[in-house]
Specification:
By secondary structure, this protein is mostly helical. It contains six helices and no strands. The protein has a domain at 33-99.
């Protein structure tokens, strides 16, 4: 039979989970895209960074946004706030799992 979790440990776990959930919601709120769009954007940018390299701009990300008829300025702000200052940093810092949490 499994031992019961002490109340203080259970409470700490609950608080930690609440904090992580609030943190994910705050990250997702800065980016006006859903998980599927961000996943597609990161995959697109990653492929181009691998094949063409990064010129330290967001040109590949901007291209994807334009091709999907989305508004660039708020997305650029959101990517930057998440650490995506250029295309290679979008790949490294804007992982959909980090922004939205694990897919269910």
């Amino acid at each position: 039979m499994a031992a019961a979790v002490p109340p203080d440990k259970a409470r700490r776990r609950q608080l930690r989970d609440q904090y992580k959930h609030a943190e994910r919601e705050a990250r997702a709120a800065v980016l006006p895209m859903n998980r599927e769009q961000l996943t597609a954007l990161v995959e697109f940018v990653d492929g181009l960074v691998v094949s063409e390299g990064c010129d330290h701009t967001l040109r590949h990300a901007r291209s994807w946004v334009r091709d999907h008829d989305l508004v660039w300025t708020p997305i650029a702000r959101g990517l930057t706030e998440l650490g995506g200052y250029c295309d290679c940093e979008v790949v490294m810092n804007c992982d959909p799992e980090d922004v939205f949490g694990w897919a269910e």
